[in-house]
Amino acid sequence: MNNKIENLKQAIIDGDQDSARLISEELLGEGLDPLMTIEECVYPAVSVVGERFEKGEYFLTELMLSAEAMKIAVAIFMSKIDKGKNGQGLGRKGTILLGTVKGDVHEIGKNLVATMLRVNGFDVHDAGKDVPSAEFLKQAKAVNADIIGLSALMTNTMQNQREVITYLKENNIETYQVIVGGAPTSQDWADKIEADGWAPDAPSAVSLAEKVIKKE
């Protein structure tokens, strides 16, 4: 593997924004495929950061620094992807509202999922972090979403994915397909809370969204 890919991965893990920017630009200059680099480098880095935060090895400061480094790298790669596509085909597959559930400030994984979905033709709206159930519904209505994606990084906040689904049912809302993801989640968890789908990582989220859209 290209040493610079490993270096970029480490820069994101370390929250080194300057290095992330420099290495990303160098990788593009070498002609590496930007989407492949996101999949092979950025996502593994995000997974490491998420695991460290879950274990208490990383705190909020480290998490935010890594998130910023990741955003810089992805923005550089996305600029190349957008130029190549000239905006054609984007948003044609469906509209997705993504957010991190109440009590959770984790955004790295969510942001990467959003990037992958946009690259693959979805119109993605970011609800942000620490989002209450009522706010998910409000924003989903505002953007006319087909899918609501719920992210949770920690075991004590993944319970709020259930809360959102329960809130929608209590208000007799059947308009949206709800998918879930995040480090502590699983297919069993998704089945238990009656979500419409679960994805273990960003590339899988794309396949899941395409599958869910076709069911509508």
Sum up the structure in keywords.
5-stranded parallel β-sheet, 216 residues, Methyltransferase, Methionine Synthase (B12-binding Domains), Chain A, domain 1, 2 domains
What is the gist of this entry?
The chain has 216 residues and is of the alpha/beta class.
Give an overview of the whole structure.
This protein is α/β, with parallel strands linked by helices and 216 residues long. It has two domains: 3-85, Methionine synthase domain (Methyltransferase, Methionine Synthase (B12-binding Domains), Chain A, domain 1); 95-215, Rossmann fold (3-Layer(aba) Sandwich). It contains nine helices and five strands. It has helices spanning 3-14, 17-29, 34-54, 60-85, 108-119, 133-143, 159-170, 187-192, 202-215; strands spanning 95-101, 123-131, 147-151, 177-181, 197-199. The chain has a five-stranded parallel beta sheet, with helices on both faces. Helix 8 links the parallel strand 4 (177-181) and strand 5. Helix 1 (3-14) packs antiparallel against helix 2 (17-29), helix 1 (3-14) packs parallel to helix 3 and helix 6 (133-143) packs across helix 7 (159-170).
Itemize the secondary structure elements and their pairings.
Elements: H1 3-14, H2 17-29, H3 34-54, H4 60-85, E1 95-101, H5 108-119, E2 123-131, H6 133-143, E3 147-151, H7 159-170, E4 177-181, H8 187-192, E5 197-199, H9 202-215
Parallel strand pairs: 1-2, 1-3, 3-4, 4-5
Helix pairs in contact: 1-2, 1-3, 1-4, 2-4, 3-4, 3-5, 4-5, 5-9, 6-7
